[in-house]
Amino acid sequence: MKTQLGSMVTFESGDITEEEAALYDRQIRLWGLDAQKRLRSARVLLIHMGGLGAEVAKNLILAGVKSLTMLDPNPVTSSEASCQFFVPAGQIGANRAEVSVERAQRLNPMVSVTAEKTPSTELTEEQVARYDVLVATGCPDSELTRLNALCRRRGVLFLAGDVYGFYGFMFADLGRHEFAEEVPVLARPGGEPAQKRPRTEQPESRTVKRTLQFTPLEDALGVDWNAEDRRKTLRRTSDVYFIMRVLQAFRAEEGRRPLATSADTDAARLLALRDSLKGLPTDKVGDAFTSRCLGELSPACAVVGGVLAQEVIKAVSQKDKPLSNFFLFDGYNSEGVVETIAA
Fold first, then answer.
1. Is the distance from CB of 64 to CB of 88 less than 8 angstroms?
2. Which pTM does this prediction carry?
3. How far, in whole angstroms, is CA 193 from its chain's centroid?
4. Bridge-based pairing state of the strands 205-213 and 176-184
């Protein structure tokens, strides 16, 4: 049996075994058997196994994807020991993906979990095409837009994210995405008033098929915020979006996120980048963010990683409306917002 995802990606979904039905019973009751079949046929490539990558991997393995490939050429550092829970003690210097496999596999033996040491910059279009979903974490904007373009050409679902201290973001480009959504059925004229109905009665709903067209990351990042038609929406756009532009520029320049061990010099560089970035409304980015973006905080990883994995599950299962197209998290103020940003 073939199941069509969006407009291009096709999954092979056979019958679920009794063992799988028992393991995924709660999920099948939540989003249905067909959705679980699509999910267990999905091949996912996850780039970089830092704290955020570990959260995404955990959630997708427990959900029951077919396979998860963790791609990371980087070694484990001492700063990651507190947020990357798949890495055993005493593994400083070992490859992050390889040392994560054993503990990740224990979560669900029905999922194939493997590691690759190839840098994401060396991924080719043919290699990307082996997967149904690509999730990129810890990459600069230039690499994210390159991977997004490869995914678009091959019909691979693309999601990305990162965490900087209290701040985090998620981006999704699902192309032309089709999904099913439950909508409430309005009461018929002359029907019994709602207040007189038994409270045990479940509200009626029906399944509606919808289509959503996503924007590639390059277009989303190419918005001219000084344009006349953008001034009206600028005030309503989350400050975190613009803070992320500065932090992503820092990653592109330094090859890392700002760290507590170099907080003063990193803060000075962040403020210089803020003031030099073309088209960035600097009044949306105050000075305080420089002390709130250090390292990779586990609570922020948990929130952003949960949202990222949730969007992968929704996209693959074609169940419920996906977030379009940014999720922006401010852990300092305990706020998370969805922004649709397109050129």
1. no
2. 0.88
3. 42
4. antiparallel
* Eight-class DSSP state of 183: E
Give CA separation, 61 vs 44, 65, 234, in Å: 10, 6, 38
DSSP 252: H
Give the whole-number percent of the chain exceeding pLDDT 90. Answer: 70
Q: Which residues contact 339 (CB under 8 A, 6 or more apart)?
A: 237, 238, 241, 325, 326, 328
Q: pLDDT grade, residue 7 (50/70/90)?
A: very low
What amino acid occupies position 97?
A
Helix 298-317 with 51-63: angle, nearest 10 deg = 40
β-pairing verdict for 157-164 and 167-173: antiparallel
User: Among the listed ranges 75-89, 101-115, 129-143, which one has the minimum average pLDDT value?
Assistant: 75-89
Task: Give 280's DSSP letter.
Answer: -
Helix (H, G, I), strand (E, B), or coil: what is residue 43?
Answer: strand
- The DSSP bridge partners found for residue 159 are 135, 172
Bridge partner list, 183: 206
- The chain-wide mean pLDDT, for the chain, equals 89
Tokens of 4: 């069509």
Contacts of 186 (CB under 8 A, 6+ apart): none
Q: Is the bond preceding residue 325 a cis peptide, omega within 30 degrees?
A: yes
Condensed to tens digits (0 to 9), the pLDDT of residues 150-179 reads 999 999 999 999 999 999 999 999 999 999
| Beta strands 9-12; 2-5: pairing state | antiparallel
Contact 326, 240 (CB under 8 A): no
Q: How confident is the model at residue 340 (pLDDT cuts 50, 70, 90)?
A: very high
Distance CA(330)–CA(170), nearest Å, equals: 12
Tokens encoding 120: 């994401």
CA pair distance 182, 305, nearest whole angstrom = 25
| CA atoms of 95 and 98, how far apart (whole Å) | 5
**Could you tell me the two tokens for 342?**
């397109």
